[in-house]
User: What shape does this take?
Amino acid sequence: MQLLQKLRDSAYLERFLASLNRLEELSNKLVAETPKSLSDPPHLVVLYDRHGFLPASLVYWFNNVLNPSRTVLLYDVESFVYHVAPYREGGPILAYASNPYSPAVYELLQTTRTLGYEAVLVLPQPRDERARGLLSRFESVRFVGVHDEVEYATLEAITVFKYYAGLYGDRLDARGRRLRKHAEEGFSVLGEEMVNKYIGNLEEVVSERAVYVSSTRFLEPAGLLFSQALRSAGINSVYVSLEQAPLSGHLVLLYNSVEEFLVKQRVVELTRLGLRLHSIQMNTDPLESLVYFAILSLFINELKS
Assistant: This one.
C-alpha cells in the first residue's frame, strides 16, 4: 500500500521529473563528447556488462536498421574476452558497463590493453576514490556523472538515441526524420504524460509482492532493467524469456505495438493456463520504445528512496 501511495504522490512525481531532467541535460553534454568510434569506422564491436546491455543494444539496432552497410557486432563482455578477443585483430570497441566494480570490467580493460584494441568503456562514476583512481589509469575509461545502475542505463540510452537519431536523421525517409525530430524535442518533456498514461499499469505491478518480467527478444535489455528497478523498490522480480514464462504467478509483459502479433499467441496460451498477466504495450517506434521503457524503469526506481 505504501508503494501505491508513493506512485500517486505529487512530490514523488516531481522528484522523478527532476531526475529525468537532470539525466537529459547530462545526456546533451555527452552527445557533444561522443567518441568518433560511434560513427566513423566501417566495423565496430559493441560490448556490454549488466545493464550496459540497453545502450549497447541501441547502438547495434540503430546501425543495423539505419546504416546497414556498417558492420556492428554485439557481445557480452565475458564472451568477447574469452571466446573472441584472442582470435581477432585489434580494432575499435565501444563498451557499456553499469557496475564499475564488476570483475568483467577489469577483465575487459586488461584484455584490450594487452591485445591492442582501441577501446572506449563508458562507466558510471564509482563512489569511492580508490576504485575511481584504479580505473582512471586506463585511458579507455569514460566516466559519466551518475552512480545508480538504472540511472546509468537510462542516461546512456537517451544519449545513444539522441546521437544516432541526429546522425541518421536523413535515412529511411519519414522514419529517420521522425526519430531525429523526437530526439531534438527531448524525452523529459514527455515524462509526466508517460506517467499519466501508464500509472494504472504500474500500480498493478507494484501491488504484487513478486512478479516475473518478460518481453520480446528485441526488448530484453529494457525488460531486464525494468526487473532491476522493481527489485530496487523492494519487489521480488525475476526476468524470464517469453518462451520460458511460468505457468502460474504474475507476469509483467513488455512489448511494442509492432510486436503485437508476435506475443498474441503466447499470451493466449499462458492466460488459458492460469497465469496472471500485466501487459504494458508501447505505441511508438521500436527504437524509441527501448528508451521509453527505461524511463518507466526510472520512475519505479525512485521508489527505493
The two ends are 16 Å apart (CA to CA). The mean pLDDT is 93.
